[in-house]
Amino acid sequence: MVRYAATPANPSKAAKSRGSYLRVHFKNTHEVAVAVKGLKLSKAYAYLNNVTEHKQIIPFRKFNGGVGRHAQAKEFGTTQGRWPVKSVKFVTDLLKNAESNAEAKGLNVEELYISSIIVNQAPKHRRRTYRAHGRINPFMCSPSHIEVVLTEKDEVVPRANDKKVVKLNARQLARNARL
Questions:
Q1: Residues 127, 131, 137, 140: is their CA dihedral positive or negative?
Q2: Nearest 5°: phi and psi at 136?
Q3: pLDDT at 2
Q4: What average pLDDT does this structure show over 64-90?
Q5: What is the value of pTM for the model shown?
Q6: Cα 14 to Cα 16: distance, rounded to the nearest angstrom
Q7: Cβ atoms 49, 88 nearer than 8 A
């Protein structure tokens, strides 16, 4: 049994999925995960599909050094963003896997939302690149571990309309008795 970084509050109403040592850039995948977290599953699919078609953008907030500015990022209150297609594909595949896990559990797929999506760095793969004057520099890739938790929305229970009980202390009770 694999240990997940995030445990759902009610495991019977949640479905999980994870991918380890995935050969996809950590920084791009982190930004995709932040953009998708908290969305309903159907909305997340539509958003990620729009990103692959360049209709919407992934806002880059944390790892944004050297990221260009685009007008599509105004929608999210920022200026920088990209369309990381490979990261979107990996996240979409994990969401589909978690959705099928939810179906197997008997959960209502229309009520699922992304309660947790976590991206961690995996060990780097080492290669080498050859430079001028006979030198060699590292040429490393930054793979990722991704885990997704989908949760069914709980029904909102209306608050009871009970008459408010007034609790009085001893001094207030004595004062009311005098009057």
A1: negative
A2: -130, 135
A3: 84
A4: 97
A5: 0.85
A6: 7
A7: no
